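Input:
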Amino acid sequence: MAVRVTSDLWPRVERLLGRIERPSRYVDGEWGVLRRPDAAYRVALMYPDTYEVGMANQALQVLAARLATIDDVATERVFLPWVDMAGLMREEGVPLFTLESCMPVAAVDLLGVTLSNELTYTNVLEALDLAGIPLRASDRGEAHPLVIGGGPSAHNPEPMAPFFDAILVGDGEDAVLEIVAAHRVSKARGASREETVRALASIEGVYVPSLYAPGPGGRMVASDPAPPRVRRRVLADLDAYPAPACPVVPYADVVHDRATVEVLRGCSRGCRFCQAGMVYRPVRERPADSIVRDVVEGLACTGFEEVSLTSLSTADHSQLESVLRRLVGRLEGTGTAISVPSLRVDSFTVPLARLLGDGRKSGLTFAPEAGSQRLRDAINKNITEEEIVTAVDQAFTAGWRRVKLYFMIGLPTETDDDVRAIGALVERVFSAAREATPKAERGGLRVAVSVSTFVPKAHTPFQWDAQLPFDEVRRRQALLRDAMPRRGVELSFHDAESSLLEAVLARGGREVADGIEAAWRAGARFDAWSEQFELRRWIEAFDSVGIDARIAAARPYGFDEPLPWAHIDSGLSEAFLRLERDRTEVATTTPDCTFDDCTGCGVCPGLGVDIAIAEGERRG
Amino acid sequence: MAEGFRLRVCFRKSGRLRYLSHLETGRAWERAARRARLPYAVSQGFTPRMRLAFGPALPVGTAGEREYLDITLTRFVPVAEVERALRAAIVSDLGPVACGYVSPAEGSLASRLTIAVYEIEIEGGSPQQEIERSLVALMGTGRLEVEHKGKQKVFDLATALPKEPEVTSSEGRITVRMWVRMGDQGSLRPEVFITAAVGTGRVASITRTDLLIEDDQGWRRPL
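Output:
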C-alpha cells in the first residue's frame, strides 16, 4: 500500500489568520464534518469561489454524501481563498489546502470542480495555480490529481476543456462513484494518466477533452475509445437518492444559510432562453413523503432555522400544498421558516400564499422576464399580465410586503416597446401591491426590480442568437430607466459588462481557453464580484490571443455552422430547438409536457428516461 | 419578559474555533440548542427568534475558557440532562463547561459581567523578571493613551486593571495574567497593554479564562 503524503498545513495556515479578513473561512471544525484520516483514496471537492458562496452549493453536498457511502474514500472541501489570503499564501509559500485535513490539494487523488457559471472560470485557474497543479491537463504528470469538472456550465465544456482531465455532463450521483471506482482500478493496475482518462471516457456522461480534436469544418471529432457524442447523464428516479441529511453546518454567514431539500429536478415549462430548463429535462418529482422525511431529518441533524424547498420551479410540484401543510404542522412553534426560491406566478395560489406566510416572511420573487405579452409569448414564458397582478395581489393580501421582479433586456425579437412595457407592468404591480396593503403598512411596501442582460446559452432555442452590442444594451437600459415608475420601486441592473463576458465564455469554443488563461495571468479572478471584475483586462487578454470579445459576444451562429458544443448530447433534438426558435419569431407558445402532451423535445426517448410526477401521470 | 426558565450555559471557545466572530459563535449555539431539542422559548412577533443572550463578545482569535450564554426554556429540564444533550449537539471546541438555572429577574450577562481575566502568552525570549519590570513600570505611570480607529482614548490604569498583572513562567513559556474591567466606556484590550509595556510582536496567544460578576461581596462567577 502506498504511503500517503498528508502533511498537515494547519500550523502554517494559522500564522496567516491574524492578518486577513474573516478567518473562519479557513478553519474547518463545523458541525457535520466527516473525517476519514486513514482513507485509501482522497477526493477534494472544490467550489471555485469563497467559502460563503461555495458552502451554499447543493451539488457538492449531494456528491459528498454519495462519496461518503464508500468506506475508505475521504471527501474534503476546498474553496478559493479570498485575494487577501491568496496573496499571503503565495508570499509564505503555503499551497491551496483542503479544509478537513488541511492537506495540500495537490496531494489528493481526485479534484472535483464545480463549473457553476462562467464567471468562476478564472477562479479555477487561480485555484490550480495556488495548489501547484499545472493549469493544462496536458502538462500534468502521474503524481498530480485527476482534475474533473461538472455542473451547469459543463454543457458547453470547450472554453475550459484544456484545463480538465475529464468533465462530467449531467447528474453526478452515480457517475461520481463510477469515476472514483475506475480511477482506483487504474491506480491498482499502475495505469498511466493517459490510460486512466481513456477508461473514464467509457463512463456515460464523461467527456475527456484530450480525446477530441477539431476535424474538417471545425466540428470536434472523437478518437477511440471516446464516443462521437457524449450523452448527458440523467437519473431516472430521483427518489432513490435522499437529500443529504447531515450536511456541514457553517458558522459563517453563507449565501444560502439554511437546510435545503431538492423537491424535483428538471423543468419543462420551456422558457426559450433558459439553459437549466432545457438541459435538466425531464421533470422528476420526489414524492411528498420523502420530502417531508428529508426536511424533518435534515433540520434535526443540522439545527438550521430555515429550510428551503429547492428546484427550478418548486410551485410546480404536484404535491407542494400537501407537503407545506404537513411541514407547517410539524414545525409549529419551533421558529423555523420554510422558503421556496423564485416562484412562477401561475402556480402561486391563495392556499400556497397562506402556507408560506405561516413561517417567517421573507420576500417573494417572481420572474416575468419580459414586459409585454408578445415578448413573453416569444420566449415561451407562458404567463399573462393578469396572472402576475393576481399573484401579487394574493401575496400582499396574505401579508407579504416585499416582492422582487426579475426581467431581462436584449431577448431575441425585443423592441423598444417591449422595454417600455416593463415599466408599465411594474407600475401595475406596484398599484396592486398598494391596494392589497392596509394604509398603515404601506410605508414598508417594497417592489424591487432586477434587470439582467440576455446571455445566449448552449442547448437552448436561442443558442444561435447574438447578444446585443454593448452600446445598445446601455441605450435600452436608459430607455427602461425612463419608463420606470418614479416612486416605491428599487431598480437595479445586473452589470452589462460581465454579461458580455458571460456571452463570450458561454458560447465559445476551445480557442476561448487561451483567452481565459491570458485574463487570469493578467490578474482576473473573482469575476462575479463586481469590485474585482474589470472588463478591460478581459478585452485585452482576448485581444492578445486574437479574439475580439465584443464581436464574439455579438456574433450569431448560422443554422448550418457546427456549434462548439455539438459533440455534447443533452438529449434535445436539434429539430426541436430549431422549431422553438422559429416559433419565437411569430410569438407562438409551446405548452409544458408535464401538464399537456409531449412536445417532442427528444430527451425522454433519447436518454431513456421518463417524466416522473409524484401524483399521477400529468400535473394539474 | 420574565416567564420561562432561564438556563445559563458556560462554554468554551477553543482550538481553531477561537477564530469565529461573536456573531458566528452565536449562530453556532442557536443551532446547537435546536439540535439538542431543548424546549427553547421563541420571541413573539413577525420574525420569531430563539430567546438567547450572550455575555461580552470575545475578539476574533482570542480563546475563551468560560464564556456564557442565557437561553430561555419553556419547561424545566434537569441540568444533567441539558448538559448531556448540549454536549452531544456541539463540537467540543465550543462545548459546554457547566449549566445551571438562574433567576429570571437577574440582570443580563452583558450588564452583570464586568471583570474579564486573561492569560497572555509572551514570545520573544525575554526573562520573566524583565517582563515583570516592564509591566510594573507601565502600571506606575498610572495611565495609558490608546489610539483605536483614529480616536484617542485615555485609560486610568488603576480603574481599567483592578488588580496588578501577574507574570508566571513554566517550561520556558512566559504568561501574563490580567484582570480587566469592562464597562460602558469600553475595556482596555490586553494586547494593547502588553504591547505598550514590552513592544510589538510579543503576544503569542490570548485566552480569556474567566468572566466575573463584581458586587458588594466581591468577585464571583456567574454560575
